[in-house]
Amino acid sequence: MVDVQFSFREESGSSDFAFPSPPGQPPPPAAMLHLQKQLLRLRGSITPALLSLHRVLFSTAVAVDAASRGQFSAVDYLVNNCGLTPEQAVKAARYISHWKSPSKGDAVLAFLAGPDLGLSKADISHVLVSDPRVLNCRIDRTLKPRLDGFRAHGLSGAQIRSLLLSSPCSFRSCNIHEILGFWIPFLGSTEELIRHAKRSDYLLKANINKVVKPNIALLRECGLSDYEIARMCVPNSRLLTSNPERLKVILARADKLGVPRHCLMFKQAVTTAMALHTETMASKLKSLGEIMGWSPDEVAKVVRINPVLLRYSEERLRRVSKFLMMVAGLNSKYILSKPTVLMYSLERRLVPRYYVMKVLQEKGLPRPKSFYTLLPIKDELFRLRYIQPHKGVLPGLADAYTAACNGELPEARYE
């Protein structure tokens, strides 16, 4: 094994700076040695950026030197044939540095770009950056059988491509029949699996029997159905892929929010407990009481009704509460009885609908007595009930409401 040291001594001191050649690689040409020394003199110290630059320079030099001697260069192949950047190629080169020729890689690239998969060069680059070991796979023993496995579970060519791009490792390392055979029925469809995989590929990497199934069993004990568990995984895939002991801690933290298990809102308590650490949760509870002027018991009551409130930022809660109390005229006791009002968007719902209500009031037109009753209604129904009937009297109301929803009216900007 060659271990050549590249050194120089600064004129102002006696410290030597040295970079070893990567194991198994020949020393770089004299010109590269000179360039490395000049870089070190310019920087005066070794930094992570300089080390990274050294790796790229060294690998480039080795590639040039190898090419000049007719030898295979892994970095050169990854850059020129696979579309990787020099930095990416340096990191991936160790997986194919043992090649004597590019014939195996050429066959894999042809298969990936061929009619069975139809990946573009950009797609192939994406796959190889994530898992360069795909280039070492045998087509007859690994790639083709895995492709057949995807098809056996009903995946189309487009779905296979989508799944491969979302989780490149799934094409080489996972047990396809176990993974697809479990997740497709549990999530309800192939489309749902792909949707989850696009958000996170943890579902395809987690151990089904040791991790996923025990976590599902724990959540079932809390009264959650498989459908509810699957829905909870859309934003929180780690709920099923984390160590079961960690999930037990999360469930215990959810219990402290006071929402009974087997209650409809318990799933919201679980997702909230997963998003917040114990200290953060305590801080959120305290700030919610300070913002709204509620006692600890009142805060606990609100959280039991809607634990998701704890996931909102303090700034958002302050702005919404200020509008509701100072502009809309709702006091803290009223909000305590209807805490859902704090969850609506200030810009997209609260301000625009309050604007419409005030216009109707000023014109003496029919309007609801309570501002709160305007909020849960979907936008289409709101327009149908409170804007369309008055288009003859107030022809600009619809446009004004739309502008308010886009934050374009002065009344829509509350700080």
UniProtKB/TrEMBL annotation:
Listed InterPro entries: MTERF, MTERF_sf
GO molecular function, one term: nucleic acid binding
Transcription regulation keyword on record: yes
GO biological process, one term: DNA-templated transcription termination
Pfam families linked: mTERF
Keywords annotated in UniProt: Transcription, Transcription regulation, Transcription termination, Transit peptide
Family (UniProt): Belongs to the mTERF family.
Database matches in PANTHER family: CGI-12 PROTEIN-RELATED (PTHR13068), MITOCHONDRIAL TRANSCRIPTION TERMINATION FACTOR FAMILY PROTEIN (PTHR13068:SF35)
Name of the molecule in the record: Uncharacterized protein
Organism: Oryza brachyantha
